[in-house]
Amino acid sequence: MPGVASRWTFPVAALARPEMMNFEQRQAMSSSPAPTFLDRVAIVTGAGSGIGRATAVAFAESGARVLGVGRRKEALEETARAHSSIAILPLDICAEGAAESVVAAAVERWERLDVLVNNAGSTAVMPLSETDRSRPVRSQRDGPEHACPCGPPHLRATSGSIVNVSSTYGHRPLAGGAHYAATKSALEQLTRSWALELASEGVRVNAIAPGPTETDVLAAAGLPQDTIDEMRAAERDRIPMGRLGDPKDVANWILRLADPLSTHVTGQVVTIDGGLELV
Question: Which CATH superfamily is domain 39-274 in?
C-alpha cells in the first residue's frame, strides 16, 4: 500500500528476476518453511520409478516413514536403497484385498497413517481402433478406487490427506490416448468428490496434474526409443519454460499439498507443466 513501508515489500520486477533482490529479501524467501513430515507415515503407490520414487524419497527426506508400493520388487528395492526410512511392499494395488493389505502393513508397522499418494498407473498410446477397452481404464482408475476406501478411517485420526496423481490430459484431449485421458479426467472428478465427502472428517483430498515429465512411462507403454525421443523433443519445444518436468518437480508439490500446515486446501488439481497449458 502507498506510504506503508515493509521489509516484505519488494519491486515487482524482483518477482520475475531473483537477481534483483537484496540480501534481506533473498533471506526472507529462502527461510520459508519447507514441508515437514517428522514422524508421520506416508504410503506411496507406484514407488518403483519416476514420480513415485521421487515422492517416496522426498517424504523420507522430510522426516516421514514411507511405505513404497508397486508391482516390481527389484525397482522398489532400488527406491528403498535411496533412504533408510523407506520400507517396501511389492504387490499389484488393483488385486483383490491388496489395498487393505497395504494400509494394514503401514498401520501395523508404524501405528498411524498420515498421507496416501495414489500414483500407480500406466499408459497406452494407440489409435482408438486398437484400444483394449479394459486395460487402460483399470490401471488408472481402479488403483485409487481400491486404495482410497481403506485409508480414511486412519487418516481421520491424524487429520491426514490423500494426493492423487493425474495428468494434464485429465483436462485436455489426447489423440491416440483417449482412454488414458478419460481415466485421468475421472480421477480428477473423484478427487473433488472425495474432498467434498471427507471434508467434514478432517481429511483433505487433492491432485497433481503433471505435464510432460522425464519418466519411463512411454517406454513402459511399449514405444520404441526413437519415437519417445521425437515425442519428447516436440513436447520440449512447446513448453514455455524450455524443459520437460523432473519427477522431483512433481514430488515437491505432492509434499506441499500433503503438508500438515495446508489445512485449508482440498479438492484442488494443481497443474505442473512449465506453462504448457498457456500456449
Answer: NAD(P)-binding Rossmann-like Domain (3.40.50.720)
Residue located via cell numbers 518437480: 249
Confidence of residue 138 (pLDDT cuts 50, 70, 90): very low
pLDDT of 49 higher than 50: yes
Q: Where are the domains of the chain?
A: 39-274
**pTM of this prediction exceeds 0.90:** no
169 is catalytic: no
Catalytic: which of 180, 249, 269, 276?
Answer: 180
Nearest to 206 by CA among 153, 247, 148, 275: 148
